Protein 1
Amino acid sequence: MDPFTDDDDLAVADSVRRFADEVIAPRAAEIDDSALFAGVHLPALAEVGLMGMNLPERWGGAGVSSVALYLAVEALAAACASTTSMVTAHFLATDAILIGGDDTQRARWLVPAASGKTLGAFALTEPNAGSNPADMTTRASALGDPLGDRYLLNGVKHFISNAAHADFIVVFAITDASARARGISAFVVDRNAKGVSMGPAEPTMGLKGGHVFEVRFDGCEVAADCRLGAEGSGFRTAMKVLDNGRIEIAATCTGIARAALDMALAWAKTREVDGEPIARFQGLQWMFADMATELDAARLLGLRAARLRADGARFSHEAAMAKLFAAEMAGRVTDNALQIHGGYGYSRQMPLERLVRDVRVMRIYEGSSEIQRNIIARTLLH
Ligand SMILES: Cc1cc2nc3c(=O)[nH]c(=O)nc-3n(C[C@H](O)[C@H](O)[C@H](O)COP(=O)(O)OP(=O)(O)OC[C@H]3O[C@@H](n4cnc5c(N)ncnc54)[C@H](O)[C@@H]3O)c2cc1C
């Protein structure tokens, strides 16, 4: 038990854990081996309400607390990180509409997305604008005409999770180049709109079932009622969405690390060297003690950020700390868990090497570890 979680949160976590163990975990190896899109799980995820877990009931969501959301994402990640990355990318898209949109837009896009009828993608990164998205060059040029205001979208987005499988993409583009970050606006674009095209799925080291794509916009027309909020409010929306997303990445990391630690504990109790279980070796016991301590510390940081978010308090600083610590911790814990398995950990017959590959990107996306340190230092030095 911890000071941030209540009985309702634990009940949500329990039911997601049971679902994830029974339905999601059994296909994790297959999804990784064949780079099968984790969308194969969409009907099941939709049925239990997971695709709208981040949304209020008013818009068809589960209406659970941010702490319950953390625990749900953690449980899902312990079963399959690829599936979790597809779901959390969908959350980025729907969070952007919830935060930046008006009620008409929320009713239009969130209700079908929450029920899993539609899948979202979130397109911020560009080939030359990752850590600093304000360097983006994708342009939305306003066209006032008698048929109604429209924009023409031109540019390229890179590493966009879910994009080719998605129904809608939240796209960030410049509407006023002279205003830098304050000149960026957010739009919801139909994935099948004229002028939208995709490259093939990017081959990646891990998260092989969470496909990422290059997305091109060549004169794609977007109606003005697809703009989220006022012109120039897009960057602020993106930053708020990423604050939420960082808590979900922290939860993904603690889920993956917990799975790795559990596997290593079970292995160490049965694997014998010199006629005794390797768990008897003090060198490994200390490794376990460090892994469990770091994992708990990461969870507490993540749950604290989630609690602040649930209470409506500011949490950017705490979310950055949670994401930084959890991503670095999960790298160490999965690596040690592989080490404890010896050669069997390195073999593709065991899940450990998949966890090591899957967790690596957590230190890179939604703001790398270096960017999280910048965010934390900025608050400290303010
Ligand atoms: C699997 C995957 C899925 C993704 N999904 C999405 C998605 O759905 N939507 C989306 O918009 N993007 C997505 N991304 C993009 C991701 O968010 C970016 O890759 C990430 O923000 C880093 O940007 P970059 O790759 O351009 O690296 P760069 O910005 O080029 O950074 C290179 C290195 O420089 C360091 N660095 C940069 N600036 C600083 C600084 N100021 N101080 C210190 N160090 C610095 C970085 O930490 C990094 O180590 C995804 C990426 C991957 C790999």
Protein 2
Amino acid sequence: MRLPVAISALLALAACTDRQSVMAAHGPEAGRVALLAGIVFAGAAVIMLVVMAALWVALRGSESQRAALAGETAIRIGGIAFPAITLSVLLGYGLWLMRDSLADAPPALRIEVTGEQWWWRLRYRGGDGAAFAEANEIRIPVGAEVEFELRSADVIHSFWVPSLGGKLDMIPGRTNRLRLRAERAGVYRGQCAEYCGGPHALMALEIIAMPQAEFAAWLTAGRRPAPAPAGQAERRGAELFLAAGCGGCHAIRGTAAEGAIGPDLSRVGGRRFLAAATIPAGRENLARFIAHGQDLKPGNLMPPFRLLAPAELDALAAYLVSLR
Ligand code: HEC
Ligand SMILES: [Cu+2]
């Protein structure tokens, strides 16, 4: 009975994707973490086998074997010398291995990431042009060293994208710096890794690593004002956005909406997810989030707009989807 259970458990584990996994390292920083983890796991497995053998001797061994195991020499070697040496070597090796992450050559790009209850405020800097705001979905160029400036606006959060690097806390009043590099294009999922109250479990993010040229075009477009509403529904949505008071909390570049409490929505239509990587994007889900956000992400800091009529919600969603 046990073997089938164990095998089916392994099959279930095999279904884990590598979108958010320490085991699937896609950058040098994550590679070092994975290497250190591998060494620790392998070493721990060997030690486990030795301990099990000692346990077997203690239970089933001959009189003299058991006496040796209980003697002072065994304790001096196995209980004092071995752990002291192993842990010291491991600490030294770990510090040496992680030294690269403190490199001080200027990065190709700097992105400010501020943890907010319960989403991520972003600001792109560097390059030649002006800085601009974004939220929740971080785009970076493949192969380039990116420095993340991690801050918090309220409580302690933690920034962790396992496939690209180790996790680093975001502490109120402090700026922590993390250097990451994605070795190939792709989407890497991350998660707030420090309990920050309420819907902490629904505070995720994605880093999208794009080919250099594509990224450069995206960055240039990001500095421009949001596109003007094209169709009738979009124009109605833009009016409603201001009339309903959304602009008190949200900014859309180039419009009268300049709120700074919630995520910047200038390019929300281009995002893969809403509400910090919790709800797939799209027109229907945008409308649902505006009216029923408290059901979809309970406790989040946006009040639900249940009084808007379905047609109004659809117009708002049409406008927001067009912002790319
Ligand atoms: C009191 C401030 C406030 C008001 C008013 C407000 N929002 Fe929000 N909104 C927020 C906050 C805070 C979030 C982040 C929620 C989260 O993910 O935890 C948010 C999230 C969003 C998102 C998801 C953004 C993203 O990056 O995932 C959309 C879309 C949105 N709001 C649209 C609207 C619209 C449309 C209105 C007007 C009908 C509006 N909001 C009014 C505070 C507000
Ligand atoms: Cu959190």
